[in-house]
Amino acid sequence: MGEKSASIKLRPQASRAIFASAGSPYFSTVLALMAVVVILSNIGAAKGVTFGPIVTDGGFFLFPLAYILGDVISEVYGFRVARRAIITTFVLAAFSTLCFWIMIELPAADWYDGQAALERTLGPVWLIVLASLLGFLVGQTLNSFVLVKMKERFGERGLVGRLMGSTGVGEFADTLIFCSIAASVIGITDLKTFLNYLVVGFVYKTAVEFLFVPVTTLVIRWFKRREPSYVATGSEANNAV
Question: Is the dihedral of CA 163, 164, 168, 171 positive or negative?
Fold first, then answer.
């Protein structure tokens, strides 16, 4: 009878959602990586790319990494910290666009022959960044919100389900917003090609994240074991039980 009562007490605590404090080098490193990935993918997205019938852009291989890093932040540090990371990345990407504009507008030296190429490469980036920022802001927020709510419901259990469920929601919103704005920038003008761009983008990004779930899981567990405040909070929960 005593053992049964003890097991009943364990269940509520076992499902308790634990999050770490953001005041560590681990968080700042992941945040920096996420910002760099988003900025580079914005530049690459200005180039239309085709693989046979498949239409995408030059940033296709980078952007899923931003969501993987976002999953790490959401799972380890919680929604408030994830929201701060999303806003910070948003601001840094917008700042990079301002810098690109200044670079283009600066008077070129007589011997500099790359002005046209610079304008062609970085000139459309502000539209790509607008598309990316709006998509990233909505998609990452939904991704983080769903993941954290699922964690609050199920605790430390079901990490793979959280990663996959939140990814589907976040990536769909992100891809729809991004493609709707960016399509015309990379030269897509007809509905058939746009739908190709939209569907391929969503399926690709989601598939990459699903394929990388084992890696994401290992990375998250690595952070949980080494993040001092996460370990401390988890120990306090166990001691309370």
Answer: positive
Alpha-carbon distance of 108 to 139, in angstroms, equals 39
Match 């990452």 to its residue by tokens: 140
The whole model's pTM is what? Answer: 0.71
Q: Quote the CA–CA distance of 111 and 94 in Å, as a whole number.
A: 30
CA distance 217 to 220: 5
Q: 28, 10, 38, 22: which is closest to 178 by C-alpha? A: 38
> What confidence tens digit (pLDDT) does each residue in 179-237 have?
888 787 767 878 888 888 888 878 877 887 788 888 889 989 898 888 887 765 655 44
Picking from 173, 131, 155, the residue whose alpha carbon sits closest to that of residue 19 is 155
**Tokens 């380890």 belong to which residue?**
76
What is the C-alpha separation between 209 and 167, in angstroms, rounded? Answer: 7
Q: Which residues 6+ apart lie within 8 Å of 137 measured at CB?
A: 86, 90
Query: 205-223: buried (b, 16+ CB within 10 Å) or exposed (e) per residue?
Result: bbebbbebbeebeebbeeb
Half-sphere exposure of 30 (CA within 13 A, CB side): 29
3-class DSSP state for residue 215? Answer: helix
